[in-house]
Amino acid sequence: MEKLKSIDIPFDIHKIRAEFPILQTEVHGHPLVYLDNAATTQKPQVVIDSLVEYYTQYNSNVHRGVHHLSQLATDGFEAARRTAQQYINAGSESEIIFTKGTTDGINLVAQSFAKAFLKPGDSIIISAMEHHSNIVPWQIVCQQYGAELKVIPMDENGELILSEYDKLLNDRVRLVSLPYVSNSLGTVNPVDLIIEKAHKSDIPVLLDSAQAIQHLPIDVQKLDVDFLVFSSHKVFGPTGMGILYGKEKWLDLMPPYQGGGEMIKTVTFEKTTYNELPFKFEAGTPHIEGAIGLDAALKYTQSIGLENIQKYEALLYQYAIEQLSTIDSLRFIGQAKHRAGAVSMMVGDIHPFDMGEILDKLGIAVRTGHHCTEPVMNFFKIPGTIRASFSFYNTFEEVDRLVTGIKRAKAMLS
Amino acid sequence: MNIDQTQAEIVDDFSFFEDWMDKYEYIIQLGKELPIIDAAYKTPEHLIKGCQSQVWMHAEEKDGKVYFTADSDALITKGLVSLVIKVLSGHPAAEIAQSELTFIEKIGLKSHLSPTRSNGLLSMVKQMKLYAYTYMAQQQLKSQ
After folding, report:
1. What digits encode the pLDDT tens for the residues A206-260?
2. What is this structure's pTM?
3. Beta strands of A233-350 (E only): which ranges?
4. CA of A353 to nearest chain B CA: how many angstroms apart?
5. Which domains does chain A have, with CATH numbers?
6. So what's the ipTM on this one?
7. Which residue in chain A has the smallest CA separation from B109?
8. Catalytic site residue from B3, B34, B37, B51
């Protein structure tokens, strides 16, 4: 571990940690070890400052005022759209829709896409490792339109069985929606292959990238993905803000999701004509400071570099797996070959909730429970897991504290 | 001892612990003293809803007093259930229904009473009071 520090780590971890005020705090008398990054990430000072700056210097509504402040707010808001466009390498700004988050983005596509394309007897494909957010919106539209929801199964390592996926693809499938990275198992899915197979039958693909956006470089044009959604708060930005990327050819054919201000061109009591992309899908006053905070967060992440982040996190993840493996009776839930972000585990038959509570008192924040993936827990026949999820500001020492904490809790609970 | 005396005694016991870990060691130990629910009652109908960990509970009335038995699949929850039962079990229904459980906050476990925590201590106390109200209603019917 010592030798790793000097040779392989692509940035100054101490400098980075100093930029996150919350990482300097203590919990129950211990320095905080924050390992719940899959739930939400912490915010660097530049993001916090961007919000304060917005409210102290140019708070105003966007797109409609002729006055100076409204122009500044509009500039900041639209700059965020360009930053997001560039971050995922989208072809055009009009393909970037601001949403409330990943869940909102999936609901938007589900409702709007289904209205345009889903007919009785059609089907939608999802996977066995979905977050509830990528199950329920599709169940709702399938019920509405008399369509069927089909599920790509996974094996006991937590990898999707692609031969089964092949069997599900046919000319009644309207869309495939799946996670880039699993929130409960950490599996990184072979999405390029999955997209390629779907496209052979002209089926569009949506990628839930909530757990990928902070860990992997994403290029929507290279992936050739049709829709991609993520949340700002999972990538060091504010909550309540997210991005939906959609190919223009699909978004143009889809009806508006919600009605209101911003999304219209003209309104009479008889008829409304809708605004063009991306505004057609952005009804009402948007989450302006959310966009401004996201802009700062994405720029911050880019300044460190996704390649550097990926490289460092791979070392950290590997170290965590090695160290956690030294704990007797610890077993990993999900052992896919390619993983990122989250490590899910069980220790003997200790209830994850007991483990989480003891770790909390030692200043270590992990998540326990089903992680909004009940079908995954049912598959493994467990009530839940202990999930440690990493970010680039976590250190090798924090992994050591987690391991010591688990050992201590284990001694108390067995 | 009445309900409030038992609560005071628990608060007193916990005041000796300086460290969270010692507190938890004690709570886990208390779980072992829990009057365990009869296996026949460990059914979905006896499961308390709203728990991350599962809690099964059964109530019985004997000579005008209500007795509780329970179990949980998580050790800390089991210890807390054991404490609550120690306080409420063996008292008349009316006293249970009117009781105010202040000891949980006093021993520093207030977060367990938060409705958003979904670990069920709050649902469990509600369920125990509900049992008590049910027995009170039955007694009233009998006396009419």
Report:
1. 999 999 999 999 999 999 999 999 999 999 999 999 999 999 999 999 999 999 8
2. 0.93
3. 242-246, 264-267, 272-274, 330-332, 342-347
4. 7
5. 2-40+305-413 (3.90.1150.10), 48-302 (3.40.640.10)
6. 0.86
7. A357
8. B51
